[in-house]
Structure formats: C-alpha cells, structure tokens
Structure of Dihydroorotate dehydrogenase (quinone):
Amino acid sequence: MLYRLLRPAVFALEPERAHRLAIHALRLAPAGQHAVQDGPLGTRVAGLALPNPLGVAAGFDKDAEVPDALLGRGFGHVEVGSITPLPQAGNLRPRLFRLAEDRGVINRMGFNNAGAELAHARLRTRMGRPGVLGINIGANKDSDDRVADYALMAEVMAPLATYLTVNVSSPNTPGLRALQDEGALAGLLDAVLDARGEGGPPVFLKVAPDLEPADIDAIARIAIDRGLGALVVANTTIARPPLRSRHAGEAGGLSGAPLKTKALQILRDFRRATGGAIPLVGVGGIATAEDAWQRIRAGASLVQLYSAMIYAGPGIARDITRGLERLMVRDGFASIAEAVGSE
Ligand SMILES: Cc1cc2nc3c(=O)[nH]c(=O)nc-3n(C[C@H](O)[C@H](O)[C@H](O)COP(=O)(O)O)c2cc1C
C-alpha cells in the first residue's frame, strides 16, 4: 500500500538511483518479522529447512547489504550476489531499464559488485543469525582463470552461506555462459565442490533460460551426478518476445512479466529432464501467488523473484505467501513439498 503511493516518485528516479534508495530504505527500516519456521508453508530442500518457498533472487542485494531486512519482510530465503573475487565496476551507465508498460526490466549491469572482501566482512558480522542465506558467486570479467575464481569464492564464502549458487548464466559477462557447456561445466563444478569442502553448504547451479534441449539434458545429468543441491531455473533472457516499452531495444538480459512464459517452459523442461531427482528453484516473471503456485506445481521446490519487487515493493513477500497458503488449501495439499511437480 505504502509502496503504491511512493511508486510514482520512485519511478521518476533513474532506475539505479531508485535501487540504491531502496537498499538504504531497507537498511533503515524496522527489522520486521521473519516468516515463522513451523508454519503451513514450511519446507525442506537440499537438506535445508525453509519457512516458506519464496526467496529474493540474486542481483537485488549484490553486496549483501540487507539480507536480514529482506528476511524481515517475510521472504523465506535471500540470495545475495553475484559476488566476484575482486570489486568490479560493471558496464557503463545507463545499464538498467524499466519496461513499465511490459512490467519488465532489461539490465546489462555486468556483475558490478564491491568484491568478496567487503561482502565477507559484512556477512561475518551476521554469522549465527537465523534465516536462509544463499551466496551467489561469479567470476571477474578480466580473470584469466574463471574456474579458479569460482573455486576461490566457494572456499571463502562456504562458511558464511546456507547454500552457494554458481552463476554461469549472466548474459552480461562475455563468454560466461559457455561455462554451461558440458565439458566446461563438469570441470567447473568439480573445482567448486572440492573448494567448498566436505560438510560445506549445498551447491546450486543457476542456468540461463536460452538453452537447447541437448544442453538441458547434459546439465541435468551433470548436476545429478555431482549431487548438487538444486538447479536455479532461470536467469534473464537474451530473447525478445514482443514488447511495448521504448526500452525494448536495449541490449542485456530481460526479466519480469515478459520472461514468465519462457521461464515456466524451461522449468518444465528441466523437470522432465531430471525426473525430480534434483530440486528446482523456479525464477523468472513471478509476480503473484498464482504465478508461484503454478511454478511449484510445474516442479519448483522453491521460487524466487526480483523484477516484480520493483513494481510491487517488498510487501510482495507477504502477499504471495498468504496467497500460497490459500491456494494450497484450495487445491487440497497438506504441504508445499506434496504439491511440487503435481501438475
Ligand atoms: C537488475 C538485475 C540484476 C541481476 N543481477 C543478477 C546477478 O548478479 N546474479 C544472478 O544470478 N542473477 C541476477 N539477476 C537475475 C535474477 O536473479 C533473476 O534470475 C531474473 O531477473 C528473473 O527473475 P525476475 O523475472 O523475477 O526478475 C539480475 C536481475 C536483474 C533485473
């Protein structure tokens, strides 16, 4: 409600400035209430207990500034990052565009982040606090050994993370998505799992929505073989469905409502390819409880969102979780886990 009143003022700002303002506002806001752990939406994924299936997708809190404030708004988990070993400025501005008429976003941020050292220092101060914290890791654009970057990040961040996500699917770092290719991916994941060490947090893999069927089968096989915790499906798309906004022609990754159909389809493809042998995290164009529920019924054990928060504000977490409780009862399911893949 409050956000709806503020939105015209927020949208009058350049999108990146609005985003900084949102982070500051969250930092200053009262702590809020974490979602209750043993409520009706409680679920277990990759050995982790979550109060509900809804999380904040990577990219909103790149530098791990406000994970607890987001958990306090009712999200069941928060994925911070992507974080790279060294600080990185990212691409030239403007690089973030609101496609308001389409309820979408295009970004070509390019892994701008303050680097591992600062994020580590911040996250160390919150160690021991409740809440599921995913740390999404990436490689520096100029690195001459990207696999070593991911391994280093896994080693450094493992003690601070409830789970780690290996992001090889950003369209804004040239060549990064080639790490999804079969040969490269197996080597990368072996290095990450080795660096994370025995007894470390589960490792998730985040994939692009622009994959061919053969890629999907290969990725599914490798992920299951390596015992990954989950596949995060998916990142932003380089495809351009019909769009109305004047920013439609901007280069970068598209997210929000125009990604919804494609993200749902690729989730179904991964469900088919994995047969439920590995949990899936559904991301892309989720804006309502119905969207989240459809993704769960299609095979997602967890769901995440980012773009919809730009249009609806952080109150979206409580709206969606309340709606999910209603939909679960309506369709006769006793738990989220029971509904996963039931379509
Ligand atoms: C501005 C922006 C920055 C993003 N940065 C990252 C990132 O650093 N790492 C990552 O894995 N995904 C990143 N994403 C992708 C989101 O995590 C998510 O996969 C995608 O936006 C689809 O979800 P949505 O439609 O709910 O936004 C970013 C998305 C946006 C809009």
